């Protein structure tokens, strides 16, 4: 982090002579960087540079008493097929089969919502309609999504693969779409939006929100410890091409080559040469590193905003909650809680059984509280987490053995209204040899 901040503060790092050359250098070993490297590994010589001391980014996991828990992302939706740039592409399923990823369908009930001690089981209505008046508002909202899907098709990623009608939803807020869906549903929507995006539903693009929410209405899949099983499988196949504890400080294009300069774990400055670079890490950092980036793209990159998050894993020597895989809460620092071992037991562990369990709590801190996230002591955050837990589980401290915090200063892109059709479109356009999607015959950045 210190090296990155020194770059942003305009510290100078000079390119050093090098004899290390690759076809492709991938910067970042999260799921996107690992996927790029995995797809290219059989055709090109490559190197993956990762700032952290582990691979996976948000898709990583830990283990306690044989229970895998996620350090961030916990599950995924079903695969889907799109037509994009004249090609038919099937997302997820072929890759997962190739990697032999042990996905399992998340057992019902997958979700719940607790508001003022009122528990709503299955708000996404996977197992049927609810009867109470409060819970019927969810069905009204899901019918609205169904009507939009009939009109425009299913919203998909990448946004360019959608029908033109979906683009208009990027210009309005997520909350605006559901403004007539009832107060109880809007309370749920706020917690869902904060968990998924790190910001309120009023601050998020309706397209981004509807894409994720429509996926929640379908089957969900997970591995023990979340999406880490994907990143680990790809990293295993990439072997020693990944260098950890290495922070990129400069990228220069010259003739038909790119020169990537980074600081390694010993603090030494190293340069490697490549024909191509895949930028698979935080975009707001790119303008400080990529030399001679066109002005419009530099401006667009700087408009990429990130939330900040704490993911807390509560290690308990007894089961204190057993109602659903994921549960949303009100009036707590955490928006929702995942039962880590649900995938292994199909939710059959019961409260008071004396069995160990891990609960993963998602705590959005907000993009404007990033300094608090990084510099306030862990004890501060643990105290707030315990305070929230005791609102719903008064005796919870008796069973907690440890709370492990994972702090993310720049977690997920904050998809604010207008971002997808605005700055993102400019950032990815081919301009001056730099592109997020296109490859040119000269030295290039993807």
Could you walk me through the main structural features you see in this protein, from its secondary elements to its overall organization?
- With 446 residues, the protein is an alpha/beta fold.
- Among the domains are: 2-53 and 244-303 and 419-445, FAD/NAD(P)-binding domain (3-Layer(bba) Sandwich); 111-219, no CATH class.
- It has helices at residues 2-8, 31-40, 93-99, 133-152, 174-177, 183-197, 206-216, 228-238, 286-289, 295-302, 342-345, 370-375, 378-392, 423-428, and strands at residues 21-27, 46-49, 61-64, 67-70, 80-84, 87-91, 104-105, 111-115, 118-121, 221-222, 242-243, 247-254, 257-263, 269-279, 309-316, 326-329, 336-339, 357-364, 400-408, 444-445.
- Residues 431-446 have low confidence and may be disordered.
Layout: helices, strands, pairs:
Elements (H helix, E strand, L loop, with lengths): L1 H7 L12 E7 L3 H10 L5 E4 L11 E4 L2 E4 L9 E5 L2 E5 L1 H7 L4 E2 L5 E5 L2 E4 L11 H20 L21 H4 L5 H15 L8 H11 L4 E2 L5 H11 L3 E2 L3 E8 L2 E7 L5 E11 L6 H4 L5 H8 L6 E8 L9 E4 L6 E4 L2 H4 L11 E8 L5 H6 L2 H15 L7 E9 L14 H6 L15 E2 L1
Parallel strand pairs: 1-2, 1-14, 2-11, 8-16, 14-20
Antiparallel strand pairs: 3-4, 5-6, 7-10, 8-9, 12-13, 13-14, 15-18, 15-19, 16-17, 17-18
Helix pairs in contact: 2-8
Q: What's the quick description here?
A:
The chain is of the alpha/beta class and 446 residues long. The protein has helices at residues 2-8, 31-40, 93-99, 133-152, 174-177, 183-197, 206-216, 228-238, 286-289, 295-302, 342-345, 370-375, 378-392, 423-428; strands at residues 21-27, 46-49, 61-64, 67-70, 80-84, 87-91, 104-105, 111-115, 118-121, 221-222, 242-243, 247-254, 257-263, 269-279, 309-316, 326-329, 336-339, 357-364, 400-408, 444-445.
């Amino acid at each position: 982090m210190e090296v990155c901040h020194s770059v942003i503060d305009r510290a100078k790092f000079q390119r050093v002579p090098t004899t290390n050359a690759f076809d492709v250098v991938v910067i970042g070993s999260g799921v996107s960087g690992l996927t790029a490297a995995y797809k290219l590994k059989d055709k090109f010589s490559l190197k993956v540079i990762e700032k952290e001391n582990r691979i996976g980014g948000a898709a990583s996991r830990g283990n306690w008493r044989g229970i895998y828990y996620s350090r961030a992302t916990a599950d995924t939706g079903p695969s889907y097929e799109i037509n994009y740039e004249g090609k038919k592409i099937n997302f997820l399923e072929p890759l997962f089969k190739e990697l032999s990823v042990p996905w399992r369908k998340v057992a019902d009930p997958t979700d719940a919502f607790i508001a003022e001690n009122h528990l709503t089981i299955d708000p996404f209505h996977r197992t049927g309609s609810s009867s109470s008046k409060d819970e019927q508002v969810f069905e009204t909202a899901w019918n609205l999504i169904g009507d939009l899907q009939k009109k425009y098709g299913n919203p998909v990623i990448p946004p360019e693969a959608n029908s033109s009608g979906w683009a208009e939803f990027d210009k309005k807020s997520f909350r605006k779409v559901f403004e007539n869906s009832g107060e109880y549903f809007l309370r749920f929507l706020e917690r869902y939006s904060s968990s998924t995006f790190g910001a309120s539903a009023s601050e998020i693009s309706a397209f981004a929100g509807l894409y994720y929410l429509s996926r929640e209405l379908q089957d969900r899949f997970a591995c023990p410890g979340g999406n880490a099983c994907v990143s680990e499988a790809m990293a295993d196949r990439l072997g020693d091409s990944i260098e950890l504890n290495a922070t990129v400080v400069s990228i220069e294009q010259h003739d038909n080559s790119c020169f990537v300069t980074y600081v390694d774990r010993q603090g030494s400055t190293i340069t490697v040469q490549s024909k191509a670079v895949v930028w698979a890490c935080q975009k707001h950092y790119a303008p400080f590193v990529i030399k001679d980036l066109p002005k419009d793209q530099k401006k667009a990159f700087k408009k990429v905003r990130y939330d900040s998050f704490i993911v807390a894993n509560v290690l308990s020597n007894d089961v204190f909650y057993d109602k659903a895989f994921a549960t949303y809460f009100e009036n707590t620092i955490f928006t929702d809680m995942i039962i880590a071992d649900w995938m292994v037991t199909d939710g059959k562990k019961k409260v008071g059984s004396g069995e160990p369990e891990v609960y993963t709590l998602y705590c959005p801190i907000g993009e404007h509280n990033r300094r608090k996230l990084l510099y306030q002591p862990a004890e501060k955050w643990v105290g707030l987490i315990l305070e929230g837990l005791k609102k719903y589980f008064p005796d919870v401290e008796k069973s907690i053995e440890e709370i492990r915090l994972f702090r993310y200063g720049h977690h997920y892109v904050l998809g604010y209204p207008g971002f997808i059709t605005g700055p993102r479109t400019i950032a990815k356009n081919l301009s001056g040899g730099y592109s997020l999607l296109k490859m040119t015959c000269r030295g290039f950045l993807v």
